[in-house]
Amino acid sequence: MPRKPRVRSGSGVTMHDVAKAAGVSAITVSRVLNQPQQVSEPLREKVMQAVDALGYVPSRSASTLASARSRTVLVLIPSLANTVFLETLAGIETVLDAAGYQMLIGNSHYDAGQEFQLLRAYLQHRPDGVLITGLSHAEPFERILSQHALPAVYMMDLADDGRCCVGFSQEEAGAAITRHLLSRGKRRIGFLGAQLDERVMKRLDGYRAALDAAGCRDAGLEWLDPQPSSMQMGADMLDAALAARPDCDALFCCNDDLAIGALARSQELGIAVPERLAIAGFNDLQPAAWCTPTLTTVATPRRDIGVHAARALLRLIDGEEPESRRADLGFRLMLRRSS
Amino acid sequence: MPRKPRVRSGSGVTMHDVAKAAGVSAITVSRVLNQPQQVSEPLREKVMQAVDALGYVPSRSASTLASARSRTVLVLIPSLANTVFLETLAGIETVLDAAGYQMLIGNSHYDAGQEFQLLRAYLQHRPDGVLITGLSHAEPFERILSQHALPAVYMMDLADDGRCCVGFSQEEAGAAITRHLLSRGKRRIGFLGAQLDERVMKRLDGYRAALDAAGCRDAGLEWLDPQPSSMQMGADMLDAALAARPDCDALFCCNDDLAIGALARSQELGIAVPERLAIAGFNDLQPAAWCTPTLTTVATPRRDIGVHAARALLRLIDGEEPESRRADLGFRLMLRRSS
DNA sequence: TTGTAAGCGTTATCAC
DNA sequence: GTGATAACGCTTACAA
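^ Those are the sequences you sent over. The predicted structure of the assembly is below.
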């Protein structure tokens, strides 16, 4: 004795409806959609006509449930407000789209605790893999990853413990731009840092190493603020830095936002850049090439990181080895007028 | 006779496992997770302990399939490379997160055809509703929306046909900034436009209306390029504009990127801004307050648009009426040194 | 307040 | 090459 039918999702057209309309069985419809070569030409045509005629849209939930594959990838980023991660997302998108995968975006707000919660929450969707920003994560985060045997690729930095990663050496980049300032004759080079996430701290390490090597490191020239960075903050930090150390002759800012704010304030104060004070940023965002004076900075291959990371993840998901488990995409110094 | 068991998704723990561990039935576990107040205190505790002990993560696919609700919202934006939409996403995220909804992000690349394909593709996830950027869409796009009876909220602009929308009048904003330039004594005010999407064209309409009202509209002062905008393009367009019309005494750029590029080029060329040439942008992105000279522009409430649109959509999904079917969040003129 | 049975729409398995 | 049948993990409807 049949019961009251339930509410249907979507427009209500199911694979069975298509099958009936085409005069075949449901499984044949499934094959036409997923492994067309296994179905004979005439049946394939009939089925496709029925699909179009009925406006049939397959249900991902049903497919995921039945096949234990969601064709979905979770992307964990620390912020939606930072162009750097957006361009990475854009790169990821091109690859996943082409492969028929869709991405779920999780924003951790630079918080390891939230990142863990996000992972747990998104696990409900049974993603086939995860793209992760950065290498350091909460202990339960890593544990849950391995518990669920989730293929993962780490982005933006280079791991040395066998985890699959795509990025560049944040430390080496920090050292390289610092050496550039040294090569310009600067000796009292300061560091402005905000947010203080993992990558900023590595750039700081690189800066310190370069100055140590040159014998002119000075701990009193480091200004660090855990708040999110902004141009306003760059301006404020410049004021604080010059008040404390008027002898400072160069500044490496941990990102372009800080640098542009510092640059603008220097202009206001009539400080000669780069003669009296050289300024360098990090990331090479668009405004770096258009501020006054133009900003010396480090160009980072964030879009490519997204592309390569997504490709590597798809291979892991398919049980293959990625081309490289540790892809170093490098960085480029963009030498402009501010140094 | 039982068959070979299938592969399990996730870590393999199901609601039945939890039920067994807690000595209750599966439906009770479901209730503890979804309507806790319907379950007695002691049972609730036992179940929660079992959930934690087993590390159980519910399957969204199974839930969606059984309940015909995905607790998922599709967000359609024209670009992932534009800060404006990111901030909108961030606003949406706060509201959806709090309500236990997750968002699927579809990037149409400013292409109505792709937008339609995206909608079709994401329909596989059976989203409970859609947040849409802009008012103009392909005909099949609107058709599919109504076929599937999908609750929808349109963002960024104001509709006059009863569609639920959250935004501000792009046209009025374009007119307002133009009137400001008029009030500064400018009379040969040019327009620089890129991308030429719906919103840019409405700003252009507003610009034209304001100049018509003042009796000084001049069709020779409009420069339009369908390519995506960039600071480089702003610089190039400034060159072209001044070459064609050296008498031009102000420029309204359709967004801040163009304006900042034009501003930077003006500085290079030694053109006095705003005396000889005033420049205004649109959106008030962060660099607008930090370029030289600072940029006059229109501040748009994009984050709030996201927040309000998401709230309205959740109400529609629940079958209630939103607070307003046409929420005008306004805009603000940011008058700075470039005018 | 709790449980039973059926069914959501698809795919894996096995048979023809 | 095609089809019948049984899962997949959960929630609805209904009963106790």
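Residues 3-4, 6-7, 24-28, 31, 38-40, 43, 62, 64-68 of chain B lie near DNA strand C (CB under 10 Å from a C1'). Chain B touches chain A through 56 residues (CB under 8 Å).

Shout if you want it in another format.
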